[in-house]
Amino acid sequence: MSAPRDKLGRPIVVVTGMGVVTSLGAGKQDNWAKLTAGESGIRTVTRFPIDGLKTTMAGTVDFVTVDPFSSTGLTERLAEMATGEALEQAAIGARADFPGPLFLAVAPVEVEWPQRLELGRAVGRTEFGYEDMLRVSGGGRFTAYHRRFMFGSIASHLAETFGTKGSPISLSTACASGATAIQLGVEAIRRGEADAALCVGTDGSVNPEAMVRFSLLSALSTQNDPPQAASRPFSKNRDGFVMAEGAGAMVLESYESAIARGAKILGVVAGCGELTDSFHRTRSSPDGKPIIGCMRKTLADAGLEPEQIDHINAHGTATPENDKMEYNTTAVVFGEHLPKIPVSSNKSMVGHTISAAGAVEAVFSLLTLEHQRIPPTINYEIPDPAILFDVVGNKARDAKVTAVMSNSFGFGGQNASLILTREPV
Amino acid sequence: MTEPKSAGAKEVWITGIGIVSSLGEGLDAHWDALSAGKINIDEKRFAPYIVHPLAPVTFDAQIPKKGDQRQMEAWQRIGTYAAGLALDSAGLKGNKEILGRMDMIVAAGGGERDIAVDAAILSADARGNSSPGFLNERLMNDLRPTLFLAQLSNLLAGNIAIVHGVCGTSRTFMGEEAASIDAARIALARIEAGQSDIALVGAAHNGERSDLLVLYEFGDFNLTEKFSPVWQREDRSGFALGSAGCFLVLEAREHAEARGAKPYAKLTKVVADLAQRKQPGAVTKSLEALWPKLGIVDDSGTLITGATGVEPVTSDEKAFLRQHPGFAVRATGTIFGHTLETQFPLGLALAALSISRGALFPPNDPTGLEVEKAGSPDQIVVVGAGHWQGEGMALVEAIK
């Protein structure tokens, strides 16, 4: 008998393991309990001084510590935790011997301020430039910082720890990165190149310069008090996103290989799609065509009609522009069916986990399918009258959910969507 | 000559090449410079560190809007420029129908820091000005609001989309040298499998950055004082950072033929590895393990490597090359410097260019490792081993 295939004759890609860490907690159980209870993980930042910042809250993962601290080190640790959980659930391969490639969505890496300050102090002068820092950089004193601040360092650490095969891929498509990592895994399995793939999105980059950067672009909410109420997707009084940390990990497998080893199937990645917007570095094309095209490509990839989607896990960042654009484009794609689709944004509670968001929200989408319960969009007190989504406001909702579309949009014209189902379609 | 592909795998042609580097811009300029054995280094600007500076380029030719140029850091301008050259060379510039569904995989690092802002903050810190909000206030006041976008890794791809209209899909791989090996590998696999018809693949690197020199100096990787070819650096190990951008248009043969595109060569195979380099000789073993995957049967041929000149990886690579004494070797690192993410696309580009010109460019190496090679190359192996991790290999072949 030939292997089970999807409508387009490709191997069906299923999920057999998932792991997640967010500001709400570590692990699926803790996250799901808090998510469906409408709890917020957003809090006033205590990791570094907030004096002089316009935005003083974030969804930091404060219960995980790394020593010596760096955002890159935290990012690595979060990925390790989520991956560990996913592999334990999938029970695939042997310990430290995962039988497939790694696709890692990760924030760009750079030397960070604590290390830069340490280097500056090593110069021993009170007025100096990079040429002076260069003179004290070598000789072995800072060797560890070369390794730590290479872009590929997190992926190589994970590859070594979990024994993934081949050259691990680190990628960025900005806020769509997590979805892209899953898409790359799906494509590898569909090509028959791998029976399994480990797809991880991770981000631990709440640090002063990262917050300042987004702040200078006027992208962040400044509704600092109380921090739990800052992230207000689809609300009239939304004013920006809330930076957050977290990681999501998924073990993808071909249906055939999962069945052959008797693995429990948690869900199906039925479709993926992406379409680039060339309009502007940070803004979407006003006609929304790239986003509309992205969702339509994803439906076509899954072989589904808009009427077959019964929940949308929105990008829903709570920036004035994103939510409006997301509604306008979604309305075009789903037409008259849209009012029947409950929409929710996990970012109201966990904040925007940036590079990890696509992966974290894919995990939450599969948990939604498993529990037949949609987590709420909290802080939904003053609905935006221009956004006519059926928002799952403030309280979780039980619903029949068979197919979820999860959307991710990012700076640089990045648009990516996933369709996740409980059963093969 | 090569191992059979999986049933139905499509042939992939290289139909566009764009290069800008320390040697100049475009294919003719590069061919002339390579043939003349030209090397362009700057020993003064970052002395004692040596860099291969970008040749003078009029960015307006590929990035007509000054506003776009201002939004970019140098690495993005270099890359956007090279991408434009590649699209020109493929005859695709302005072809909205194809550009609108063209896939793109960019291998990227990040952009330059605001050196003056950093230095002012660090100097103030050294003078004891470190109240709790000091760093925040300086960053909030002194950073240019759009600098972030000029630094973000995926914004090279974003700029290529904006300036050239490449807007099918856009993916950015990171991870130094390995990122571009994987970019080529994934783009090739997608086209072979019918997941993509045409893709723009490449990278850009600005080697004239003191913040990057600091980063590599942490690991004592920089070449200082005296320039020497990469094969002559055992006693003074190091790389000289090079500025370069290189993009390739990869295309399914059927797609290229249907639009009457002229190929430079075909890309037959790209393979990659992540050796655990803690073990001595790991890179030699890794390259030896990758070699048979190319499916080469001849024991003589041509090989272009991005060998960096840092140790121990360069000696490991030499040990691998000694196993294949029939291959004429060329090292791009001597000529262009180390261009990190651009290393591998540059090797692919020079292989395709050599095949299309029916000759291999002359050696540039007094140690005798590189030898003259007459005749028209049918196959060129491209090797890329990262300075600290990541190994890859590709096979570029003439179309018969």
Automatic annotation (TrEMBL), chain A:
InterPro entries in the cross-refs: Beta-ketoacyl_synthase, Ketoacyl_synth_AS, Ketoacyl_synth_C, Ketoacyl_synth_N, PKS_Beta-ketoAc_synthase_dom, Thiolase-like
EC number assigned by the record: 2.3.1.41
Pfam families attached to this UniProt entry: ketoacyl-synt, Ketoacyl-synt_C
EC top class, as a word: transferase
Family annotation (Gene3D superfamilies): 3.40.47.10
KW Disulfide bond (keyword) present: no
Domain of life: Bacteria
GO function terms (MF aspect): 3-oxoacyl-[acyl-carrier-protein] synthase activity
Biological-process GO terms, alphabetical: fatty acid biosynthetic process
Domain Ketosynthase family 3 (KS3) intervals: 10-422
Keywords: Acyltransferase, Transferase
GO CC annotations, alphabetized: cytosol
Pathway: Lipid metabolism; fatty acid biosynthesis
Keyword set includes Transmembrane: no
Family of this protein: Belongs to the thiolase-like superfamily. Beta-ketoacyl-ACP synthases family.
NCBIfam families in the record: PRK06501.1 (NF005076)
UniProt name for this protein: 3-oxoacyl-ACP synthase
Organism annotation: Bradyrhizobium retamae
Automatic annotation (TrEMBL), chain B:
Keywords from the named record: Acyltransferase, Transferase
Enzyme class, spelled out: transferase
EC number in record: 2.3.1.41
Example GO BP: fatty acid biosynthetic process
Beta-ketoacyl synthase-like N-terminal domain residues: 10-254
InterPro entries referenced in this protein's UniProt entry, alphabetically: Beta-ketoacyl_synthase (IPR000794), Ketoacyl_synth_N (IPR014030), Thiolase-like (IPR016039)
Methyltransferase listed as a keyword: no
GO MF annotation: an example: 3-oxoacyl-[acyl-carrier-protein] synthase activity
PANTHER family from the UniProt entry: 3-OXOACYL-[ACYL-CARRIER-PROTEIN] SYNTHASE, MITOCHONDRIAL, POLYKETIDE SYNTHASE-RELATED
Protein's name in the database: 3-oxoacyl-ACP synthase
